[in-house]
Amino acid sequence: QVQLVESGGGLVQAGGSLRLSCAASGSGFSINAMAWYRQAPGKQRELVATITSGGSTNYADSVKGRFTISRDNAKNTVYLQMNSLKPEDTAVYYCNAGILYPRAEYDYWGQGTQVTVSS
After folding, report:
1. Taking CA atoms, which of 8, 46, 47, 86 is between 20 and 30 Å from 61?
2. Contact (CB, 8 A) for 66 and 88
3. Phi then psi for 81, rounded to 5 degrees?
4. Contact predicate 92/38, CB 8 Å
């Protein structure tokens, strides 16, 4: 059974930085694409950034130039470096991973970590 465990959220002032981590635990699998999503109160969950197994990245327009997604395949971990944070970045952030078993791929989610940016 795979678990995605997130860490690194918290409270920060506008203009500050945070680094989120998400580690996949378990055995017998490899990981395809990984991603970060976020959900603000009263809003739908939205895609923030994605990274393929080969390291190609994509970002939502709202975070381009401020956020950086990266991964360490040896550690089964994905990161989200968030700089120049704005109050509108306040949300619960979720990591997502495509977990590959020999005959199938499954979609897994982390439990979410709160990011609050004060003005």
Report:
1. 8
2. no
3. -90, 120
4. yes
98 near 34, Cβ under 8 Å?
yes
HEC letters along the chain:
CCEEEEECCEEEECCCCEEEEEEEECCCCEEEEEEEEEECCCCCCEEEEEECCCCCEEECCCCCCCEEEEEEHHHCEEEEEECCCCHHHCEEEEEEEEEEECCEEEEEECCCEEEEEEC
Residue matched to tokens 């678990």: 3
- Look-up: residue for tokens 């197994």? 53
